[in-house]
Design a protein that fits this description.
Blueprint lengths: L6 H13 L5 E4 L14 E5 L10 E5 L5 E9 L5 E4 L7 E4 L4 E10 L2 E3 L4 H7 L1 H4 L4 H14 L1
Antiparallel strand pairs: 1-2, 2-7, 3-4, 3-7, 4-5, 5-6, 7-8
Length: 150
């Protein structure tokens, strides 16, 4: 039986746990903006972001309207602000600052596999895939075509 949970309240609670010093706080993934790296049912494990994020890091942040979003850092500017992008998106979102970032993904459980920074799959989505944003739609279509042929 699926439970319906208020996402805003749930993620507020996650932020409180992190502020209390908890680490590797699990959060289930829901949505399509981080596909193909993350899918519904995967779990991300969050830690406090520290004082610095790097391109390729996956962060939990709030948009100006208060909505929580889990996306990847696309680029960090010299002034400390940065651009954010979901792995299925084609263009980065406007610049945000560290004050909007509440957590950073330390590792992922996808199915029964742990994926952490430094793993090949993590590296692929953090580096080459990030820069292929303008061509992602075409790459994904080709990938799906060949996947269905198997």
């Amino acid at each position: 039986m699926d439970r319906i949970v208020n996402t805003q309240a749930y993620l507020d609670m996650v932020r409180d746990l992190l502020a209390e010093g908890k680490t590797a706080v699990p959060v289930p993934v829901k949505g399509i903006s981080m596909r193909p790296f993350l899918r519904d049912g995967d779990r991300v494990f969050l830690d406090l972001p520290g004082d610095r994020v790097r391109p390729g890091d996956i962060v939990l942040y709030t948009r100006p309207n208060g909505q929580y979003v889990l996306h990847r850092i696309y680029r960090v500017n010299k002034n400390g602000s940065f651009w954010i992008i979901g792995d299925s998106q084609l263009t980065p979102e406007p610049i945000i600052g560290m004050s909007c970032v509440h957590a950073k993904v330390s590792f992922v459980i996808a199915g029964d596999k742990m994926i952490k920074p430094g793993d090949l799959r993590w590296w692929f989505y953090a580096c080459p895939w990030r820069w292929l944003a303008p061509w992602r739609r075409h790459i994904s279509r080709i990938w799906e075509f060949f996947r269905r042929k198997r």
